[in-house]
Amino acid sequence: MLNRRETLGLTAALGLMQGIPALAAVPDRTLSNANATPTARKLYTYLWSQYGRKTLTGQQEQGSAPPNPRGELDYLQQVTGKLPAILGLDYIDPRDNDAVNDRATAWARSGGIVTLCWHWGAPDIGTGYENSKKDFDVAAALKPGTPQNIAMMRDMTEVARLLAVLKDRGVAVLWRPFHEFSGDWFWWGKHGPDAFKSLWALMYDQFTRVHRLGNLIWVLGWAGQNVDPAWYPGDATVDVAGADIYANDHGNLAAMFAQVKAIVGDTLPICLHENGPVPDPALLGPTADWLWFMTWHTRWLTGTDQNTADQLHRDYASKRYVTKDELPAWLKVKA
């Protein structure tokens, strides 16, 4: 059975034989995991149907500290009268992770789309954001049986358990692990592209083959300061490619979009996986066809140096941007 990359190569080759340019070949719009759940497949089909036409609105919640996970959603409802299509959550605090799953489930059952990241604290140090920026011996962790490997696999198994809960509830997840991997601030980006690609391959194998998590759509997120093809794990384990940068204006970030597209071409949709200022929807189009944006929480949403209430109201009313009320009813997960 051909994998996705082989299928794409064959499609392109057939296109050339028939006199069709390679870029005109129809991309393979199936998920990388052949055992994906029907819910994940339907969501992925919907995402492809929007790519190049519309951009889904997204908002990251602030989580449990301070304890107001509804803060961003309530603010958007107040200033725009609408809610984002995508809600971003984070497995950052083990004390809150079960509640994260409950909030994700409630969002999916109300008709929204869920995306999850993981600020993974260095496994041999501890959980939390600050620990995710501390170093971890990745080379040792990739050797079975080492203390680092045991700690890493322990953490990975626990997060797989959390994701399995969402699978059992019928929730498909835009899964965004190892985010901003091409930067040097998180431990998974401190040891270069080869170490990162080994981590990605290991998690992909564990989650798809060992833990049978067919509800995941795998989202790869470069740091915008370094969109380098050397870090790309390959089409066979990625479903959506993205990049982020916390720009100080509302431009379309076309240059960063072009850098990602130069790597993945037309084989994957491209998202703005984190942002501060929301891009001006009037500036989006072929040179910046972001599938979604994901505004970060607290001051990145509400700070007037990032997004004003009037600007957010205009953006959420734009025909380019898809809000939660505009999602198809069949995306709603049944209780």
Automatic annotation (TrEMBL):
Keywords: Glycosidase, Hydrolase, Signal. Residues 1-24 form the signal peptide. GO terms for biological process: substituted mannan metabolic process. It holds the Pfam family Glyco_hydro_26. One of its GO terms (molecular function) is mannan endo-1,4-beta-mannosidase activity. InterPro entries: GH (IPR017853), GH26_dom (IPR022790), Glyco_hydro_26 (IPR000805). The active site is at E180, E274. Residues 38-325 form the GH26 domain. Belongs to the glycosyl hydrolase 26 family. This is Mannan endo-1,4-beta-mannosidase.
